[in-house]
Amino acid sequence: MDGWEWLIVAIKCVVILLIFLGAPLILVLVERWTLGRLQSRIGPNRVGWSGTLQTAADGLKLGIKEDLIPRGADKLVFWFGPVFLVVPALAAWAIVPVGPKVGLGRDIGLWAVDLNVGILFFLAMGSLGVYGVVMSGWSSNSKYAHFGALRASAQVISYELIMGLAVLAVILYAGSLSLIDIVEQQRGLWFIVPQFVGFLLFVIAGVAETNRVPFDLPEAESEIVAGFHVEYSGMRFAMFFIAEYANIILISAIITTLYLGGWLGWTIPGMEGLTGIVWFALKTVAFIAMFLLLRAALPRLRYDQLMSFCWKFLMPIGIINVLLAAGLRMAWS
Amino acid sequence: MPSWIAVVILIALALLFTIGSFVGTMALKPRRKDPVKGEAYESGMPPIGDTRGRHNVRFYIVAMLFLIFDVELAFLYPWVVLYSNLDEQLFLFIEALVFIGILGVGYVYAWRKGALDWKN
Amino acid sequence: MSVETGTASMFGDIEQVSENQMVLNMGPQHPSTHGVMRLLIEVDGETVTKCTPDVGYLHRGVEKLIETHDYRGGITLTDRMDYTAGPSNNMGYLMAIEKLMGMDDEIPLRAKLLRTAVAELSRLASHHIWIGTHALDIGAMSAFLWSLREREKILYLFEQACGARLTTSFMRVGGTGPHDVPESWVENVDAFLDSYTLDELNSLLTGNEIFQSRTRGVGVIPAEQALSYGLTGPSLRGSGVDWDLRKARPYAAYDMIDFEIPVFPEGDVYARYLVRLNEMYQATRIVRQCMEHLRDLPADAPSNADRPDLVPPDVGRVPFDMEAMINHFKLVMHGVQPPVGEAYFGIEGPKGELGYYFVSDGSGMPYRCHVRSPSFVNLGVMEDAAVGGLIADTVALIGSIDIVLGEVDR
To answer: Under a CB-based contact definition with an 8 Å cutoff, are residues C374 and C232 in contact?
Structure first.
């Protein structure tokens, strides 16, 4: 690697960090507006122009709030819990391809890194994320946080299996673990068509992994109040927020990449990079919208239902789906 | 592996950002110690007993099931990559059927034994 | 304030639970206890093995306060008990006093119809709070706000009728009091009934797969258990017992109105949900019929009993009319003075049998007042019904028996 490549990688990483920090700010605002409209109320409309600076103001406010650490808490773990949530959420962004290779003097791929184990890396980061949740919940020494952590760990690891099974079938078609290869393989046909069942499995597992309605049990406010982050305040609480919304965006981006052809779409010749980013963003935003609408429409599942839905319903479907895809693949070739 | 550099940089940035913002905002924060404030939240009442006791065995069962199936998945990844790139697909397919079949027996056993039921 | 890990002595043995179990405070500061109620639950994993309701955090001594006011002065206090359905409370209170006075047959028809209509509107208002918070407990956020939006329309009608939205104090002993509803009120109620819809809530919840799986077969209260705990109202009818005071012992104008009592036999949370939902449809029917009857009445139909010892004279007459002046003075100074005796009267409130018991010593203030509040009695069943469910089921159960802590603690 020469100096230029180092610089390019560094720039990409900084851009990812900025998006990572900025997108949740916008998403939280958009969510509050959307929910407001759907629930016949207004939503934030005071700070800034029609409330546009609301989340920024909230972030600032959290920055100057006292950091409480409950007595009896494991201070070190409590302190570092949110860090373990944010780090994998950000690191997983490294493999997301937002566009094709563009030539700006030299070939630059619109992704931070093309790992040959790409999708495995994403799954690994997803599993690491649950450490942050468990650490925060367990170290708080609060029963509600404790229940939240237990729920989160059981839920996330269970649905991770479903996600892994769905991904298996995609790899059967793509023949590679690299996300860039997976996108390129979809030039003829987006994988949502042959893998519709897998797509549904992945979306359901994705909603469960991000702890969103109707799978928001780890932070069910009407049962266990706020779950694993009930004891957190100030900047550390903000980290939970950033991680949750960054994960929503990440999952949407991965769904787009795996099933909807990533950046593929009609392009204007000579502007493949730009149109690619636009296509990618459009598809991702559609899934983010789905997350928001789910929250407005659905009640919450109960814990045992969530688990049996995963183990007794999704699991067999996932396994059969993989075998079916393998059989079809064999018959086709 | 130079390609992992980006991942390393991102992890470093995340650590920098999180720990930096924790440390950086320390000076801005009020710090007033209060025994009541230090209580863990339990709906406004003093907590009863300790949180870190023994747990219902269900949570361990799900952990074990996860381990079993996750290892299965991990074995299937190489299979899947090979499967789409090799010619001996029939052999590989039957191999996977046997592999998943064995796990399926265990799965059915766990189901029948009630390990997948949460309400007892 | 003590912050030791101790607890109230009434739960003294609570820490000797088995090793697998954990004692969890749910409330008083918990989003799903519908106010400041405390549930002490023992959980094994997330399965509830014991549930002890602990009430009293909102105790204001309403019964004792009523005993220090004259009979008419207590009306404003009753509003504050079940604050989701103020007029219903007023109605039960007044009808008990009227029974004590032995004048329940002297109430003019117009007053009866207005009372019935407002009581049913308050039932709607109360059920709107219930459906919203119940849905919120189960996680459906939009239903809560949609429900409260509909409720606003009802509160607006209350405001038109008496100037207050929540604490209406609408009725008086002997009728509807000095201020009858404005002339346009009947039309406004009709307009409200035409625009009112439950379809949105219905489509959001009733057929929803997740909502059903959260509520069906959850928190089952068998009929015998419901009866032995003294459950009343929708919580009882959700267990299949067809008991409603409006039909069993018709009061006010209910005997001249055609309506049905929804009963569902399953006894689970979903059955209670269906009972209340159907009650809301029935309530609109009742209000509509009341409005029709009201329209049929002559324009000068009285809305107060012809009893100067109960009903204050028209305020405009007081400075100019000796008799009215004396009447007013007597009423204000001595209040309503029922004969020596006791009386109990229960109405079918939104949450169950809302009964008032008075003992009179012949003076202007009740010697003893007791309120049989449905929330308090219904809450008792928590102890049995919550056991064996998960924490989430407990939350659904609290929502389904519809308690208001202002009424539980009084």
So the answer is: yes
- Is residue A41 in a domain? no
Chains touching chain A, criterion 3+ CB pairs below 8 Å? B, C
How close B55 comes to chain A (CA, Å)? 10
Q: Is B77's Cβ below 8 Å from some Cβ in C?
A: no
pLDDT tens, C145-174? 889 888 998 998 888 888 888 888 888 888
Query: In the predicted model, what is the mean pLDDT of chain A?
Result: 84
Counting as contact any 3 or more CB pairs under 8 A, the partners of B are: A, C
Distance CA A95, CA A116 (A): 10
Does B102 contact chain A (CB < 8 Å)? no
Looking at per-residue pLDDT, the higher value among C225 and A270 belongs to C225
Which helix (H) or strand (E) segment is C148 a member of? helix C141-162
CB atoms within 10 A of CB C340: 11
Q: How far is B94 from chain A (nearest CA, A)?
A: 10
User: Model-level pTM?
Assistant: 0.85
Q: Which residues pair with C23 in a beta bridge?
A: C42
C-beta atoms of B17 and A21 within 8 A: yes
Q: Which residues of A touch B117 (CB under 8 A)?
A: 304, 308
DSSP C2-65: --SS---GGGGGGG---TTEEEEEE-SS-TTSSSS-EEEEEEETTEEEEEEEE--TT---HHHH
CB of B33 less than 8 A from some CB of C: no
A37 touches chain C (CB under 8 A): no
How far, in Å, CA of C214 to CA of C208, rounded?
10
> Comparing A112 with C402, which gets the higher pLDDT?
C402
Amino acid occupying residue C73? G
Domain that holds residue A194: 66-100+113-332
Residues of B with CB below 8 A from C13's CB?
none
**A57 domain residue, yes or no:** no
From residue A263, alpha-carbon distances to A194, A206, A278, A280, A284 in Å are 19, 20, 8, 5, 10
The 10s digit of each residue's pLDDT in B52-90 is 766 666 777 777 788 878 888 888 888 887 777 767 777
Alpha-carbon span B19 to B25, nearest angstrom: 10
Q: Is position A221 within any domain? A: yes
Q: Is the minimum CB–CB distance between B45 and chain C shorter than 8 Å?
A: yes
Class of domain C62-409: mainly alpha
Residue C285 to residue C121: CA distance in whole angstroms: 11
Please say whether the beta carbons of C32 and C398 come within 8 A: yes
Q: From the list B46, B51, B119, which residue is nearest C6 (CB)? A: B46
The answer to whether C187 touches C346, Cβ cutoff 8 Å, is no
Q: Do C4 and B39 touch (CB under 8 A)?
A: no
| Rounded-to-5 percentages of helix, strand, coil across chain B | 65, 0, 35
Instruction: List CB contacts (< 8 A) between A39 and chain C.
Output: 141-142, 145-146
Predicted local distance difference test score (pLDDT) of residue A203:
92
What local confidence, expressed as pLDDT, does residue C162 receive?
84
Q: Which residue has the higher pLDDT, B64 or A26?
A: A26
Chain C residue with minimal CA distance to B50? Answer: C22
Domains of chain B from N-terminus onward: 2-113 (1.20.58.1610)
Write out chain C residues lying below 8 Å of A299, CB-based.
135, 138-140, 205, 208, 210-211, 214
CB-CB under 8 Å, B120 with C47:
yes
Residue A106 located in a structural domain = no
**Domain count of the fold of chain A:** 1
DSSP letter assigned to residue A41: S
Instruction: Give C182's DSSP letter.
Output: P
- Alpha helix locations (H) across chain A? 3-38, 54-63, 75-91, 118-139, 143-174, 179-185, 196-209, 234-259, 272-297, 303-308, 315-332
pLDDT value at C7 more than 70: no
- Locate the domains of chain C by residue range: 62-409
pLDDT at C18: 60
Nearest residue in C to B39, CA atom: C3
